[in-house]
Structures are given as structure tokens and as C-alpha cells.
Amino acid sequence: MSFSDYYSRGQILSKRDCLSQSTVNCLSKIITDNLKGLEEYHASRILFIYVSFRSEVDTHQLIKERLNSGLEVAVPKTDVVNRRLEAFLLKDWGKDLRPGAYGILEPDTETASLIQPSQIDTIVIPGSVFDRQCGRQGYGGGYFDRFLSIETPQALRIGLAFSLQVLPEISMEKHDQRMDIIVTERETLRCNRNTNIVK
Ligand SMILES: Nc1ncnc2c1ncn2[C@@H]1O[C@H](COP(=O)(O)OP(=O)(O)OP(=O)(O)O)[C@@H](O)[C@H]1O
Ligand SMILES: [Mg+2]
């Protein structure tokens, strides 16, 4: 990762942090409505989705809605020691989540149940910067890169972003994982992650 890549991640995150809470809420509603309009979202059975934190596209409402509808929803728990993500099925928003690593809401391992990553068919992913070829950078931990490439190669990958987070092109390293779909408040980008060509 070059200096200029860190610079663009930081710049974009600072911009995202400047959005007011009401703007985050309003744009997040549009983005999650766009997500809910996708055929792939409806086809998903075991959805693994990040629990939003700070100025990320808000996923709390969407997760609550899925739980209320009796749909499966798994969320990540960060294992900082082994630098990996674990997937837990939620049943009850109020009972099954606790602030964990980095203050992010995480599943309570006493009440939520651990699932095998191979059971997940669709993953909804946050990020710092994306590009129009569905490239993605996260926050520098490599957690999602490892999870996607090693543990969930079978799953469809959907990135959620405000359009200010999508640049024309970002540099990607070999380990950086591309998305299949990126959803913003303005558009849905679909890519073929193996050839990097926008469909
Ligand atoms: N599959 C992998 N195997 C080994 N190391 C990896 C793998 N994926 C990423 N890493 C390492 O993780 C570190 C952080 O990677 P990177 O900067 O791409 O994180 P990120 O994409 O911002 O984070 P995240 O994936 O959690 O959103 C790098 O040192 C990278 O080499
Ligand atoms: Mg990466």
C-alpha cells in the first residue's frame, strides 16, 4: 500500500465523517432500499452483514427488519488475536449484540450461534474507498480480505458505500478482494471480479 493510497483512504474517511447524522440516515435508507431491490438480495438465504459503526452506511434498520421478518442474518465477530472474522447468527437485536473490539457492536457468544462460513451465500461489506471496477479498500486490518478469499469464496459480495467513497480507480494489491456488486445512493455497480471488467 503506497502513501497515496493511505492518503486517499484517510481523505475519503474524513469526508464521510463530515456527513451529518441526518444525512447518514437519509442516504443509508436510500442505499439499503436499493440493496433490498436487488434480485440477489432476495435470493440470499444466509446473509452475513456488517453491523455499522460511526459514519458507515447504516445497517441497523436492515438487520432489525430481517430479524422481524424471520430471515436469517449473521454478523461478524472480530477475533483480534487470530486476526479473523467469525460469523454468528442473530436472533434478537437487543439480546445478542454487545460492544466488542473497536467499540463495534458484536454478537454475544453466549446467546448468538456460531456458523460455518461455508453456509453463507451473500455478504454485505463496508469499506473506506471503492472504485468503479468494484475494487475495495477497508480500514487496514485485512479482516475482510482474508475472510472473503479464504473462508467464503462461494459467497456473493456486495459493498455498501456513499457515492463520495467511490473513486474512478484505486490501486489494488494481490490480496485485496473485489466486490461483485457495489450499491450507493446513486447507482448499483456490477462487476466480474475475475476479469475486473464492468458489466
Ligand atoms: N489473504 C491474506 N493472507 C495474508 N495476509 C493478508 C491477506 N489479506 C490481507 N492480508 C494482510 O492484511 C494486511 C492489511 O491488508 P489491507 O490493507 O488490504 O486491509 P483492508 O482491506 O484495509 O482491511 P479489511 O479487509 O479488514 O477491510 C496487509 O498486511 C495484508 O498483507
Ligand atoms: Mg485490502
Characterise the protein shown here:
- The protein has six helices and 14 strands.
- It has about 200 residues and is an alpha/beta fold.
- The protein has a single domain (about 5-199), classed as Rossmann fold (3-Layer(aba) Sandwich).
- The chain has a nine-stranded mixed β-sheet. It has a three-stranded mixed β-sheet with strand order 9-8-11. Strands 4-5 form a two-stranded antiparallel ribbon.
- The protein starts with a helix and ends with a strand.
- The model has no long low-confidence stretch (mean pLDDT about 95).
- It binds adenosine-5'-triphosphate (ATP) and magnesium ion (MG).
- Magnesium ion (MG) binds near residues 138, 142, 145 and 176.
- Adenosine-5'-triphosphate binds near residues 1, 137, 142, 145 and 175.
Overall mean confidence score, pLDDT:
94
Rg calc: 16 Å
Taking the sheet with the most strands, its summary is: 9 strands, mixed
Low-confidence stretches: none
Provide the spatial order of strands within the biggest beta sheet: 6-3-2-1-7-10-12-13-14
Distinct small molecules: adenosine-5'-triphosphate, magnesium ion
Give the strand tally.
Answer: 14
Number of helices: 6
The structural domain count equals 1
| Helical residues, percent | 25-40%
Shape: globular
Strand content: 25-35%
| Element-by-element helix/strand order | HHHEHEEHEEEEEEHEEEEE
CATH class descriptor = Alpha Beta
**How does CATH name the architecture?**
3-Layer(aba) Sandwich
From the N-terminal CA to the C-terminal CA, the straight-line distance is: 27 Å
CATH superfamily: NagB/RpiA/CoA transferase-like
- What structural class do you assign from the helix and strand content? alpha/beta
CATH topology: Rossmann fold
